[in-house]
Amino acid sequence: MDFVRDYGFILILFILPVIFVLQPLFLPNLGKQENPMDDKALKRKKLLIYRQIKELEMEFDMGNINEADYHATRKELKQEVSKVISQLTPKN
After folding, report:
1. What are the Cα distances from residue 90, in Å, to 34, 39, 40, 49, 87?
2. What mean pLDDT value characterizes the chain?
């Protein structure tokens, strides 16, 4: 029984920390998570941005947003939706 206990201590105190330290060298892609957005998520994002543009226009029409902020925000949203649309179009 002492034999198992001694090797258990060696495993816990030496081998497991060494494995933990050397793990990134042998498994470099383990931590990387590729999360490309699929078409469904991109279409949803496009609709949400369009909705934001519509809400921005309503806020501007009601007078809650000044003209400079309106134009700057609208320009940013249009650029963002353009990026999403370019990701949705198939590459030839």
Report:
1. 20, 10, 14, 21, 8
2. 84
Q: Report pLDDT for 10.
A: 73
d(CA 58, CA 81): 19
Nearby residues of 5 by Cβ (< 8 Å), 6 or more positions away: none
Is 77 in contact with 49 (CB distance < 8 Å)? yes
Residues 6+ apart with CB under 8 A from 46: 81, 84, 85, 88
Residue keyed to tokens 């470099």: 28
In whole angstroms, what separates CA 14 from the centre of its chain?
37
Contact 79, 33 (CB under 8 A): no
CA distances from 9 to 26, 58, 63, 76, 81 (A): 25, 68, 72, 59, 58
Higher pLDDT, 66 or 24: 66
